Write the structure tokens for this entry.
Amino acid sequence: MTSTREHIAAVRGEAAVARSSTRPADPASFAFPGVLPQDAAALGAPAEVEIPANPEQLRTLHLDQLPGLARTLRRRLLEITSEHGGHLGPNLGVVELTIALHREFRSPQEPIIFDTGHQAYVHKMLTGRPDLDGLRREGGTSGYPDRRESAHDVVENSHASGSIAWAHGIDRARRRIGQRGVTVAVIGDGALTGGVSLEALHELAADVGSGAVVVLNDNTRSYAPTIGGLAAHLQQLRGGELPAGADLFTALGLTYLGPVDGHDHAALADVLARARSVAEDPAAGAAVVHVVTRKGAGFDRAEADALDHWHATGPFEITPPAPPAAEDPAPPAATTWTARLGEAVLEAARADERVIAISAAMVDPVGLTPMQRKMPDRVLDVGIAEQLALGTAAGLSRGGAKPLVALYSTFLNRAFDQMLLDVALHHEDVTITLDRAGITGDDGPSHHGMWDLALAAQVPGATVFAPRDGDQLARAVPAALATPGLSLVRFPKGKAPAALPAIETREGIDTLLRTGPEAADAPADPGAPDILVVSIGALGHAAVAAAREVAREHPEARIHVIDPVQALPLPTPLLKAAVRARAVVTTEDGVVERGIGAALVHELTTRATREHPAPLLRTIGVPQSFPRHAKREAILERCGMDAAGIARTLREVL
């Protein structure tokens, strides 16, 4: 196979090669004008250009109009996300790149697949959705590609690292039926650390003549700076430290183009045209275009934010007022579930030097920052690689450590095999904490953490803690670390609710409420309830409120609301209490058909006989579906998981 340099020379001439060999500096040093609307004129910024209605109109613009269009897009990104929040930093960084992609490639005939998808706002704005109407709100524009919105949106899955496989698969299917054309995968350097992307590159390299183009958007980070050997290699390429042809991609047999300044319209137009030529050459290895961008580009506060460059934000003021002079405020109390988790993990690490925390490129979002600051050598970031995180944890356990793997619940799906067969099969002592468990809301179907209970229920020997409030979470973390084998601690997104104290704890089961004639007497044996409500996790407040509402209507009804504290394996005292009840209602923030309630139903019906039939059973949870983006509260209400919905079920069984 000819070298990258020889092939490009044949396609575009030596001038193109000379240009491609000019490597940009590190992203932080790129010269780039500010775009805040207040100071744009003073800085001599280009006049704004109206956002074109579609990619066809975009392609009619002259090159010198593109800086003005980029300015318009950034202004609108700021205005839209300042009102409702969203993924601002990633989209500010890909404005010029997205313009160039839609000018060179003919979407949707030539699909552009965005890895992860949170950086697709600009893509949406250039494909008929300039105002991102109702961004991330129910009935409005999704924060990720959405096939229901546009033919230009291909992959809705917001999990990282899959775009190259998608693009190559589409390309292969088209070539089989005689269709030619280009299919584009846009993937970040952070997502490239994921095993699926590396597997896909390995396969793509063996398919000479593929029409797939990989655009590597290298901004040196995902949430946090990208780590590992691949990150170091990309740094060498950005800095011009390697001779031509000495890159990893060329060694695999791919055609490497770059690195290119991802904020230079002319350079992007040139390199993408050359990538098309490579894709159309049946004798060439697939093109990998290395584009260097700055996350948060053009918005000073985002660029200056060392934590995550405003990766995601809530509503904000574009020009904030000057802060009033005041003494240093006291640090705020930890009020979110994530903050409470961070406190608990740090305390556990202080108490036991064997505790080592592992993150999959999300140290801060999953609450590990306090431990990382105090004990940096005991927090491992393995990149966007959940399978690696669980495999590493199994090895750490075997070596005598007490590993704690902190993930978003939705990303546990990617590591089920390791959880089942590396950790559980070998009885390794591994604790997994799952943030954003259950319904998450605004980010849509693939961000919901509604499958973790169903997955854990299939794993022999797994112990699951689903705390109902922040105080219970603080107790669950050390309890999980002290439990032999696989343990999981799961909790939802957002602010932790007020503490919900138990009125009684008996054999490890917390009773949260009793109603009925004898409720105030607190007898040693409270008797068989009419309804036993088994509340799993953060729905505890709603379950108690529902029971109180029904009790007001039916004062004679004996309703007991309990929290088993340990959701799995099903505690024996829970089973004994359930057998005595006339009816059992379970509530959980997870898939109802396969979760804790389903496990309890199985146990009770299996034990039932003609003489001792099972109680009337109802399970409340998320239907087996893919809930679209909306506020968490709205989705819970639709699923009958709020207080009113739970009360309806209680009335039915009464």
Remarks:
- Residues 34 and 298 are 5 Å apart (CA to CA).
